[in-house]
C-alpha cells in the first residue's frame, strides 16, 4: 500500500494540473440552461456528462423518472448515474449533484448562462448552486483515478434533476429504485455550496401548507351584501403577527444551523391570492367589481430537530381556531402540501470524519460543522434510501445561491476537489471507512 501522505500530495498536484479543464467544464455546464421549473435541457446536460464520464472509464446509465411530479414528454425528468469499479471488493463512495437551476431573475451584470471567467470567479446561474460542485467532484474523481490505479470498492457520480423543486424527479426517484441502498452505496457526498472548510451535517425540517378562507361573492359597490375572504385572511395574518411569530422566535436549536437567524423556528408567507385571477399580460381592461369569496395563502414553516411535526401543524391550526372563535362567519380549509423531517448525520460518522481530516490535510484548517437552513437532497437519501452516512460538502458561498451575478471561485473549487480526492484515497485505498464501521 502506498504512503497516504505521498498519495495525497500527488492527488493535489493532479487536481491542480486540471485547473484549466475545471474552468472549461464548469463553464460548459453553466452554458446548458437547465431551468427548473419547468425542467429544461435535462437530457442535454445528462448527455454531456455521459460523454465526459464514459471517456474517464465509467459505466453510465441515463434514467428517466417517469410519472414523477413535473415529468412530461416536453420536460422529461432525466438523471445520470456513473459507476467505476475498483480492482477488488470494497465500499462505494457516491458524489451526488443536482443539475437543475432556478430562474435567472433581474439584476445581472453578466450573462447568466455565459460561464464567464472574471478575476478568478466563474459567473452564471448555477455556478455556485451547484454546477461548480459537480465539476469539482468530476475533477476530483478523475485525478483520483490517475493517481490510484488500485482501489477497492467503487466510485459513483450522479447528476440528478429537480432538487430545486423537491427532488422527486431526481434523488427521490433513484432512492426508490434502490440506488442509495446502504448495501449498494456506503458513503455519499453532496457538493452543495457550504464553503470549502465546512461540513454540512443535515438540514432543518419543512412543512408547507395551503390555507383557504371562504367568503361570499357580491357586487363591489355593495360589499355589505357579501363576505370578503381577503379580510378573513387578513385576520389570520394579524393573529400570526401577534402570537405565532413571537412564539417561533423563542424556539432555539442545538443544531449548528447557519446563518444565525435560522437557529430559531421560522415561518414564511410564501404567497397570498384572493379574488379574481390576474388578467393576461396583453389584457388592458379593468377587473370586474366583485367581493372575493376565496383567499388562499401558502405557508413555508421551517422547524427544528427538537420539534415534532404534529406540534408544528397544531400551532397553525390553533391560530385558525383562535380567529374562528373571535370572528363572525369565519371558515377555512387547510391542506398539507409538503413535509420533510429534519436530519443530521452524527459527527462520528465515517464520511464526516474522513472529510474533516481531508480538509485539515489540504488546507491546514479545522473543519466547521454546520446545518443548512433549507432542505436539500440528503432528505431523500436518509428517508427513502435509509442511508445515514451522508453529508453536503462543496465549493461556493451559500449566500450567493439564487442571487444575481452568482459565481464560484476557481481556487475554492480546486481546494474542494483536493479535499474530495483525499477523501477517496482515505475511503477506497486506505479503507478508513470500513475501519470506522468496525469492519
UniProtKB/TrEMBL annotation:
Cofactor dependence: Co(2+); Zn(2+)
Gene3D superfamilies membership: 3.30.70.360, Zn peptidases
Domain Peptidase M20 dimerisation: 202-323
This protein's UniProt keywords: Cobalt, Hydrolase, Metal-binding, Zinc
InterPro entries for this protein: ArgE/DapE, Bact_exopeptidase_dim_dom, Peptidase_M20, Peptidase_M20_dimer, Peptidase_M20A
UniProt GO MF annotations: hydrolase activity; metal ion binding
Pfam family, one: M20_dimer
UniProt entry tagged with the keyword Zinc: yes
Assigned protein family: Belongs to the peptidase M20A family.
NCBIfam families on file: DapE-ArgE, PRK13013.1
Name this polypeptide is given: Succinyl-diaminopimelate desuccinylase
Amino acid at each position: 500500500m502506498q504512503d497516504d501522505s505521498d498519495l495525497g500530495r500527488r492527488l493535489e498536484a493532479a487536481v491542480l494540473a486540471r485547473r484549466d479543464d475545471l474552468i472549461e467544464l464548469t463553464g460548459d455546464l453553466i452554458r446548458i440552461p437547465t431551468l427548473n421549473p419547468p425542467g429544461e435541457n435535462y437530457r442535454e446536460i445528462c448527455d454531456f456528462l455521459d460523454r465526459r464520464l464514459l471517456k474517464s472509464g465509467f459505466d453510465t446509465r441515463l434514467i428517466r423518472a417517469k410519472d414523477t411530479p413535473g415529468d412530461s414528454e416536453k420536460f422529461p425528468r432525466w438523471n445520470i448515474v456513473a459507476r467505476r469499479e475498483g480492482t477488488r471488493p470494497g465500499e462505494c463512495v457516491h458524489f451526488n449533484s443536482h443539475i437543475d437551476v432556478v430562474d435567472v431573475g433581474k439584476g445581472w451584470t453578466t450573462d447568466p448562462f455565459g460561464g464567464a471567467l472574471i478575476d478568478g470567479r466563474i459567473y452564471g446561474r448555477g455556478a455556485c448552486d451547484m454546477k461548480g460542485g459537480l465539476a469539482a467532484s468530476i475533477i476530483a474523481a478523475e485525478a483520483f483515478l490517475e493517481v490510484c490505479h488500485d482501489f477497492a470498492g467503487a466510485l459513483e457520480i450522479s447528476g440528478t434533476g429537480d432538487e430545486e423543486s423537491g427532488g422527486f424527479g431526481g434523488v427521490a426517484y433513484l432512492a426508490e429504485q434502490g440506488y442509495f441502498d446502504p448495501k449498494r452505496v456506503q458513503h455519499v457526498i453532496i457538493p452543495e455550496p457550504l464553503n470549502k472548510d465546512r461540513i454540512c451535517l443535515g438540514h432543518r425540517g419543512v412543512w408547507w401548507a395551503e390555507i383557504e378562507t371562504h367568503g361570499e361573492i357580491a357586487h363591489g359597490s355593495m360589499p355589505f351584501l357579501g363576505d370578503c375572504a381577503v379580510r378573513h385572511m387578513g385576520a389570520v395574518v394579524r393573529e400570526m403577527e401577534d402570537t405565532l411569530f413571537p412564539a417561533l422566535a423563542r424556539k432555539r436549536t442545538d443544531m449548528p444551523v447557519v446563518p444565525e437567524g435560522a437557529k430559531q423556528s421560522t415561518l414564511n408567507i410564501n404567497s397570498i391570492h384572493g379574488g379574481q385571477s390576474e388578467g393576461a399580460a396583453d389584457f388592458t381592461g379593468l377587473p370586474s367589481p366583485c367581493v372575493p369569496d376565496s383567499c388562499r395563502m401558502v405557508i413555508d414553516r421551517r422547524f427544528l430537530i427538537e420539534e415534532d411535526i404534529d406540534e408544528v401543524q397544531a400551532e397553525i391550526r390553533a391560530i385558525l381556531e383562535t380567529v374562528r372563535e373571535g370572528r363572525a362567519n369565519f371558515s377555512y380549509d387547510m391542506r398539507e402540501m409538503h413535509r420533510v423531517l429534519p436530519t443530521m448525520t452524527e459527527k462520528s460518522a465515517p464520511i464526516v470524519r474522513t472529510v474533516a481530516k481531508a480538509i485539515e490535510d489540504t488546507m491546514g484548517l479545522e473543519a466547521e460543522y454546520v446545518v443548512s437552513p433549507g432542505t436539500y437532497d440528503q432528505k431523500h437519501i436518509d428517508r427513502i434510501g435509509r442511508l445515514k452516512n451522508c453529508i453536503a460538502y462543496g465549493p461556493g458561498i451559500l449566500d450567493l445561491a439564487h442571487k444575481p451575478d452568482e459565481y464560484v471561485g476557481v481556487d475554492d473549487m480546486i481546494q474542494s476537489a483536493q479535499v474530495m480526492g483525499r477523501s477517496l484515497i482515505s475511503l477506497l485505498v486506505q479503507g478508513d471507512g470500513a475501519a470506522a464501521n468496525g469492519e
